[in-house]
Structure formats: C-alpha cells, structure tokens
Amino acid sequence: MELERAFRRYRLMSFITGSTLLSLFATLLLHQISASAWHHISLLVRIDGIAHGVILFPIYMIASFIFVLKARLSVLYLVIMVLAGFVPFVAFIMEAYMRRKVFPAGVPARTA
C-alpha cells in the first residue's frame, strides 16, 4: 500500500514537472521563431520558470527519492528519474518505464 501511494505521488509530480518543462520548451521554441512574441509571453515564462525550478522540481525530486526507497530500487534509477526532469518528454517516458517495472500487472486500484 505504501509503495502504491509513493508511486502515485511520484506519478503526479512527474506529470506536473514534465508539463511545466514542456511549456518552457515550447516558449523557447516560440522565442526562436519570433522574437517579437517574447514580449507577450515573458510573464508566463517567469511564472512557469519559477514554479518549475524553485517549487515543483524539488517536490519531484523528493517524490522520486521516496518512491525509490519504498520500491527498493537502485540509486541509478533515482539519478535517471531526477535527470528526466531536465529533458522534455523524458519524465513521461521514465514514469511509464517505472510503472511497467514496479507494477507489471498494472497499478492496483485505490482502496477506501
């Protein structure tokens, strides 16, 4: 039960961290295409950047650490999970890989 709860927390933070990183990456691409668009999205980038880097990523690292401890995985998995928060799309791929590795039959349903 503790393992499932730890995985659900890791999964949620993986999706949130990956999504904010994707939005930052999309704004970077938009900036490369049209520098004039930067004036319209600079506030979004500041808010999203601070949210991702200062608030969400440390929570993602803690959730990853707790999940690795509960699942008794190697430290190498923790390093890969943390690095996945830096590369767009990799957080989603790593979450799917960890789900298949730890729960081959699927994540158990929540019990009340």
Description:
The chain is mainly α. The chain has one domain. Helix content is 79%, strand content 0%. It contains four helices and no strands. The longest helix is centred in the middle third of the chain and has 34 residues. The radius of gyration is 16 Å and the shape is elongated. The mean pLDDT is 88.
Short description:
This protein is mainly α. 79% of the residues lie in helices and 0% in strands. It has helices at residues 2-33, 38-71, 75-84, 90-102.
User: Quaternary arrangement of the chains shown?
Assistant: single chain
Number of domains: 1
Specify the number of helices: 4
Low-confidence stretches: none
Mean pLDDT: 88
Number of strands: 0
Which structural category do the helix and sheet elements fall into? mainly alpha
- State the distance separating the first and last CA atoms: 12 Å
The percent range for strand residues is under 5%
Order of helices and strands, N to C?
Answer: HHHH
Report the sheet with the most strands, covering strand number, pairing sense and barrel closure. none
Tell me roughly what share of residues is in helical segments: over 70%
* Rg (C-alpha, Å): 16 Å
General form: elongated
Tell me the layout of helices and strands:
Elements: H1 2-33, H2 38-71, H3 75-84, H4 90-102
Keywords:
112 residues, mainly alpha, 4 helices, elongated
